[in-house]
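Illustration: Cytosine/adenosine deaminase.
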Amino acid sequence: MSEILIRNARAVLTMDDAETELSDADILLRDGVIAGIGSRLETTGEIVDARHCVVTPGLVNTHHHLYQGLTKAVPGGQDALLFGWLQTLYPIWERFGPEEFYVSAQVGLAELALSGCTLSSDHLYLYPNGARLDDSIAAAQDLGVRFHATRGSMSIGVSNGGLPPDSLVEQESAILEDCIRVIDAFHDPSEGAMVRVGVAPCSPFSVSRELMRDSAILARDKGVMMHTHLAENDEDVAYSLEKFGCRPGQYAEDLGWTGPDVWHAHCVKLDGQEIDLFAATRTGVAHCPCSNCRLGSGIAPVRAMLDAGVNVGLGVDGSASNDMASLIGEARQAMLLQRVQNGADAMSARAALRVATRGGAEVLGRHDCGQVAVGLRADLALWDVSGLESAGSWDPAALLLAGPQKVRHLFVEGRQVVRDGRIATLDIDAALVRHREMARTLAGLG
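Result:
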């Protein structure tokens, strides 16, 4: 039996139904689970002094493309809209292989962990030169973060009217076969699972209608979740109207892509009817505010979604369309954008943090985390509010208004992944050396 006692936390934001906030509280972690919350708790295990810290549930990242960490700030894509951005980067990505996928995932997940993230999804939809989803899963396992990998795919290349180059698309039968392989090999449906797997065709403009439908059938037969991009920008909606004769939400519904086992990335351009559809079907949304700003896609109607009852979580999106992977920064950006669009009272700091924690966990179907509660998984972020960024704050728990951008400590399944602001589970300096070498080679500088 292993125990860790987080002692005398300045504040604990539980994210429970009553929005309980505790002061000067202890949290006992035992065998990966929160075993006790209170005062003057005792342990024979390790004690972590949290008197200067605000404790939150671990943040949840509901959308990422980790492989893109090797192509941050590529000059040709810095000022492009979505389709042009993709066309700039596809020729670079087709040179990747298994090691690039492993190292980019390792460094990207470490960056997320430092921003408070304990659970991340990843949407990997291209597999050049022998790369497999296994490479990213191995990186997550080595780091020790909770991981929801999705087996993405592209099947319509440029010669058939699609956007990706033909070298990056796969045969649809091979895609479905590999989905079955990775689900059987890695998916863990049990409570406390460290790895789950989903099925995730890339987008309506890179796969066929048949693959969308067959992927949904396969996912439901296997009991796994489904993920794709939807209604990301005006080009996306125009493509749907031209090719399918309907808006993206209707296209999704027609092919079985709505329901509590589905979450869509972006949804910047959902209209009122589509929002109502997602609310009625309990379809989830991964909101990626920084990437949406970076690509000029627009401001997603998050306030309207939440008011309608849509499950909404946050995503950093790919490292080549955000160029950072900060979940706490994403939460602040989400809050600010809703205020720009709807007024200063549209989203509070605590409401945005709830979307970043419990909201994301619910989108990913994880009811075993996302809150600080006895019996749930010991996934916790500790934010030191005694430093410069919080100086002068009258409300240390309002982290998104005045607070640190990196965690002091991070626990996943009761294991300390970040200790005193440093990754504790791997040699991050060595990983960064290899990452820099790869990036220079890809840029023609190595």
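Reading the tokens back as a structure: The radius of gyration is 21 Å.
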